[in-house]
Amino acid sequence: MNKNNWSKMVQTFSRRSGLYIIFFVSIFLLISILTAVQPAYRFSSDVLNSWTQEMDSTIFYHLITMENRAYKQSFPEGEAEIPKLSDVFFELTSNVKPTDPRTLFGNEIPGFSIFDNQLLMASDNDFTHFPIESNPPLEEVLRDREAVLEEDEETEETEDTEEEESENEQTTGDRDVVFIYNTHNRESFLPHLPNETDPDGAMHGEINITKVSDHLAEELERLGIGTQVDDTDFGELLNERGMDYHQSYEVSRDIVAEAVAGNQEIQYVFDLHRDALRRDKTTQTIEGEDYAKILFVIGTGHPDYEKNLKVATELHGLIEEAYPGLSRGVFQKDGSSGNGVYNQDMVDNALLIEFGGVDNTMEELYRSADALAEVFSDYYWDAEAVQSDS
């Protein structure tokens, strides 16, 4: 081997060795930084999950096709090309997707961020059907108003309730396994407020969503499911504590904690509300009778929301089978445009249920409560039978 060849080999080896050394030193420094940095600034699975959610899902499918070309055959015509790296980089760095205008305007237009949430298991995907939560000043919530409730609506009960209770083969006995409360307990309905026309003003201290809770509890009891109903006036409690209406979940959280601590038998927790949407979005006619539509709201602002989501989606499916169109679906809501937790992190099987809207009547609401009680009863007893067998 001549001197020139030997010199070239030495130079090549030196360059490669230098690159290897730089590479391993860089890896060492990166690992040192990641392990030494404060926990708040470290990469986490949540960060990586957030990044991957911003990427087009077809990118991952294309990665799979690189390993198994047979998967390419499943692509729709004209979509077989992998997205451009520049487009992917743009979406990751800007959080703006050219095909989704919500990502561009969501943080600029007031109220538009609600569309970042997801409506699952719905009969339609009309964005105008998304729930609207009233948030009036507390003094407006507490303002005295005239309310009217027909006597037959106020005293409406299922006939021969006591007789049917005694004949019910399945019962929880003296155990209350369902807990119902109303964080926005003064949410009322315009048909029962003759001098009120503003949806945000549909509030009343007595004729409100709590009557639906009472009716639902009575029907569940008739079906053998022991139910506890909380009657706390959270509006008044907020006023006593000098808090604002948007802090309602802070005070209702204390009540839920107290109820769960005092009754270990509680298996399901329902927080009943009414939507601020108008009648055409919240009413369904079934076999000639009008019902107030139901919507399940699941807060995703805590790590264990999947358990609640499972219950909500199963109930939605059962309601759709028995009463087509009654359920508006399951709405996932994070903390970007509201509470995002709704006390659902405190216990398994916790649901927020929207009953109707500002234009529905108690008669329509009671029908929906009866329907939910019927469906939930079947769901509950089926679950109990499975647990008994296992």
TrEMBL record:
Transmembrane segments: 20-41
Originating organism: Oceanobacillus jeddahense
Keyword field contains Transmembrane: yes
InterPro entries with a match to the protein in the record: Spore_II_P (IPR010897)
Composition bias, Acidic residues: 149-168
Ranges in a coiled coil: none
Descriptive protein name: Stage II sporulation protein P
Region of interest (Disordered), residue spans: 148-175
Keywords: Membrane, Transmembrane, Transmembrane helix
NCBIfam families found in the cross-reference section: spore_II_P
The organism's place on the tree of life at top rank: Bacteria
